[in-house]
Amino acid sequence: MRIYFTFEPRPDLCESLLAEFPQVHFVFERRLSHEELTQADVLVTYGEDVTEEALQYAPNLKWIFVASAGIEKLPAQAIMERSIIVSNVRGIHKTPMAESVLAHILALKRAIPWIYEQQQKSEWSKKAKQSELYGSTALILGPGAIGSEIGRLLQAFGVKTIGCNRSGQTAPYMDSMTNFTQLTDVLPQADIVIAVLPKTAETTHLLTEVHFRAMKNSAIFMNFGRGNLVEEHVLLHAMKAQEIGYAVLDVFEQEPLTADNPLWSLPNVIISPHISSHSSRYVERSLAIFKPNLAKWLRGEGDLENLLDLSRGY
Amino acid sequence: MRIYFTFEPRPDLCESLLAEFPQVHFVFERRLSHEELTQADVLVTYGEDVTEEALQYAPNLKWIFVASAGIEKLPAQAIMERSIIVSNVRGIHKTPMAESVLAHILALKRAIPWIYEQQQKSEWSKKAKQSELYGSTALILGPGAIGSEIGRLLQAFGVKTIGCNRSGQTAPYMDSMTNFTQLTDVLPQADIVIAVLPKTAETTHLLTEVHFRAMKNSAIFMNFGRGNLVEEHVLLHAMKAQEIGYAVLDVFEQEPLTADNPLWSLPNVIISPHISSHSSRYVERSLAIFKPNLAKWLRGEGDLENLLDLSRGY
């Protein structure tokens, strides 16, 4: 039984794996090599290195554990044909991502960018334009594990939360729910619109000009899901025309954003280079999900946590 | 019955006062004038304009309503001798202040200053040093209305809260309590030390070199109470010697901070020019506290809200 990691956890985390699973042969590399694949029964990866070609070198592969949430780069068809099971670390991002979302919202409400600028000029001034998060309304596109955690924190700040998903079915920490087709009707109520949707056919270009025009002039739009949600030219137009107050973007149609992209210099746009989910505790948490599932799998039990249905894309 | 405001609320707020209290003669000015004082029964003020001299021009004055929290500039002795009652808007600051405190903490934990800097350079990099607020321990010096609100929000983020006051008596949203004399023993546990203490003889220079040395090297120290808490040279030394991770300061021994103050340019110090309590909803909320108390007072009832004991200083 060989388990092949295409990244290298901290030494103490590796040691604990070796100690807890003496019957397993672990291989830790910092990349995916075809030689190692030929012997691997389980692949532990961040998901970006698994190609259709790579799978051909892995005749024994039965389980891919993806230590991230995004699985859109996996060769879904080839994996399904081989009946390889795939599980991920769904929910692992919820704490750092929700903290990043709240950090950006509170920063804008409490004039943190202005405070930093004044300090650079050594200038004491009280003319900050500050408002409050309390009493706002937030629309959360995609109230899954991450969106609901954002909703929980927003509610603690006295924010009314409206969840929006495909079905309109209830989700935790949402005061009310709506669905994709009714989005335009609900957008005028929202002070903050937070998208944490996965990349699927349905979410691609889900937001259009119409939606930005329907938002409040003062609205903060945040995309912390995937860049496919809105075409860049639509976003650029909305921000240049000041149709809304701010856009805070963690994801983009094309990543990395090139240095000449006009988004960088718009005064009402905040660029976060797809780092909102990062955390110094990330690998530790991934392994805390992986280990009990590995134990189950070694016992021959099939009901692993976070098993993915690649035909649906999430 | 004349009520003299030394500031001017928004027209709609003035109108609602006139409509609700037709029996009262309201005067709204943007400053304190001796002429108007001679006739005033009630003075509504932000508190900084009331001097001992001014009181001599106000023979009828029975009640001073201070639309702020800080009352240290009031001529306490003269007010007590005249038996003028004083009430304030205690608690009005809790929402904007708690939001500012959380904004600064989350900004540092989620690398918001770094994100803004990268954007200025149009530079896509994922090398942010981000950590999480979740699982931290916060020590709150002065868990009153504001401190408890900060505690409530921190607990929602999974932070353990330790309150610290003179007596060590329990306070809301504190997981445990300590008192001023045991501070040095508790400081090593805290990832964040948040001071929201009023200015009194006891809080003056309460924090000394010993306390900064007792804090974690990574600790964030926040003073959002009053500048008397710690001598500036003590703070400067602690920050230059990097005894702690960050200081976020909203208050100072001398305000405004002069342009040549070395605090401005220390990389581990964030300067907020005493604006953390500011909010566009401030006057509205002050009047929401004032009105029911005015109604009580007109009925001759004495148990006004937030009556102050000037002999204790808060």
TrEMBL record, chains A, B:
User: Is this entry keyworded NAD?
Assistant: yes
Keyword Lyase recorded: no
Q: Which Pfam families match?
A: 2-Hacid_dh (PF00389), 2-Hacid_dh_C (PF02826)
Q: Which residues form the D-isomer specific 2-hydroxyacid dehydrogenase catalytic domain?
A: 31-300
Q: What are the UniProt keywords, alphabetically?
A: NAD, Oxidoreductase
What the record says about family reads:
Belongs to the D-isomer specific 2-hydroxyacid dehydrogenase family.
Protein name as annotated: Glycerate dehydrogenase
Gene source species:
Lysinibacillus piscis
